[in-house]
Amino acid sequence: MRRDAKPPKAKVGAKPMGARKSRKNDGSRVRDLEKRLEEALQREAEAQRREAEALEQQTAAAEILRVISSSPTDVQPVFDSIAKNGTTLCDAAWGAVIRFDGQLLTLMAQHNMTPSELELLSRTYPRTPTRGRATGRAIIDRRTVHVPDIRENPDYLSPFQQALGFRTVLAVPMLRDGEPIGVLALWRREVRPFTDQQIALMETFADQAVIAIENVRLFRELESRNRELSQALDQQTATSEILRIIGSSPTDAQPVFETIARSAVTVCAALGCAVFIVDGDLIRVAATHGVRPERVERFRVEFPQPLTSDYFDGARIIRERSLFHLADIERNPNATVQDVEYARLGGYRTRLMVPMVRGQSSVGLIAVTREAPTAFTDQQVDLLKTFADQAVIAIEKRAPIQGTAVAQSGADGNPCPADSNWQRAARYQRRPHGCSASVRHHRGECSPTMRRRLQCHGALRWRDSPPGRHPECAARGRRGAPERLPEAAR
User: Fold this and answer.
1) Which of 152, 258, 379, 470 has its CA 20 to 30 Å from the CA of residue 439?
2) How deeply is 357 buried, as exposed, middle or buried, from its count of CB atoms within 10 A (0-12, 13-18, 19+)?
3) What is residue 447's DSSP assignment?
4) Nearest to 68 by CA among 282, 288, 197, 215
5) Mean pLDDT across the chain, nearest whole number?
């Protein structure tokens, strides 16, 4: 070996092979971390989105429940809220709430439709449910119907699909005890199926709609029962009051007639009431309440009327002992020209007349009117019949007392009862305006009974007039008529 030989030098800066592998691993590790971070962010964003959707759904459900509680008697605000929230939260083009009454589907509420779209859709309602549409299919099958693309569904036969331009439909039935009472529907113009969460939300809304409908139904039933109980109590109170007046006024039926007129208006929700009494062969007005002043003035002119009168329709009711009940007189084909004339003069649209029947004859009549065109209920008609029976009791109770008074007054041959009623009538007839109103109306004719009773008190001076006529009274004219007729002259 040579002494001057030098050992080989080591290469400076040479990198071990292991270092290169470490750099590659670091890059892979970074990419893996970035991927994991991106997935984590996506999951977090999805969780936030789901949380936001859940919050929106809870808020919408709470809003609908609030509307339900604030509208116990009206379900329409609930339908409007469901249509709006369902369309918004489920990202639909428009939505609708449809009721089903067992035969027909009726559009109740909608959201986000243009006026032309609404007009086009409204033409198809009300209609019977069919399997050719998602709403009808949901009613028939009693289950949720989801059609992702109606063009690929041969059973879908909507004639307005092209006009409305929708492709995806969701229909959720409203079921009460398993029976359909309506359906919620959503439409999308593009092919985009609804998610399971959106379908579940609409099913929740359908349940809330059922709750709202039941709530309104139960509330109205409770109101109706309370109203019936209140009416029954009012009727009992009214009949008891009339009986009390009968007991406290054995010699005078006038307070009874006035109480009947007042109670009839109050309990029967009437506009006015008039009580007519048969006096011999004449009909007179005994009491009124709520009757227009111009009608009362006409009563003064037209009454007393003969029992055989064809001018006063109440005379026929009294003679025939029949009930008269006519609702919506202006439009009722059974109404006569006279009925319409009376209705316009009295300002009413419905009229009920109940006779006071005693044995085989009638002793009077109770007539009530109302402004609304609706008929009186059966309970109100029965109440008027009870009032009529009580009026008969008051008249019969007074009759024996008057008979005793007549017997006691027979010494001077006076044919009139010795009570104050006919005396007041006589004084009224002796006034300048006298009986001329009724005389003119009946063309001077006067019944024998009325003539004898008034003549005995000096109310009429016959001179040389033929029987049954008194032209002197007719010629006096009607001047200064009092505001209120005396009891026996009314």
Assistant:
1) 258
2) middle
3) -
4) 215
5) 76
Q: Which two tokens stand for residue 13?
A: 């800066």
- Residue 57 has a pLDDT of 66
Whether 458 and 429 have beta carbons less than 8 Å apart is answered as no
For 145-243, strand residue ranges (E) read 145-147, 168-176, 179-188
Contact call for residues 413 and 381 (beta carbons, < 8 A): no
d(CA 482, CA 28): 116
Tell which wins on pLDDT, 63 or 432. 63
Sheet of 324-326: strands edge to edge? 305-306, 282-289, 272-279, 361-370, 350-358, 324-326
Boundaries of domain holding 362: 249-406
Residue 54 falls within a domain, yes or no? no
Is 178 inside any structural domain?
yes
Question: Does some domain include residue 305?
Answer: yes
Half-sphere exposure of 461 (CA within 13 A, CB side): 8
395 phi/psi in degrees, rounded to 5: -70, -45
Residue 445 CA to its chain's centroid (Å): 49
DSSP per-residue string spanning 359-420: TTEEEEEEEEEESSSSPPPHHHHHHHHHHHHHHHHHHHHHHHHHHHHHHHTGGGT--S-SSH
Query: Residue 402 is part of a domain; what is its CATH number?
Result: 3.30.450.40
Q: Final residue of a domain: which of 406, 435, 456?
A: 406
The per-residue pLDDT for range 404-430, each reduced to its tens digit, is 333 333 434 443 443 444 444 444 443
For 286, counting Cβ atoms within 10 Å of its Cβ (0-12 exposed, 13-18 middle, 19+ buried), the class is buried
Q: Could you tell me how far CA 420 lies from the centroid of its own chain?
A: 48
Same domain (yes/no): 212, 350 = no
Q: CA–CA separation, 340 vs 220, rounded Å? A: 35
**Stated pTM of the model:** 0.54
The dihedral over CA atoms of 346, 347, 351, 353, expressed in degrees to the nearest 10, equals -20
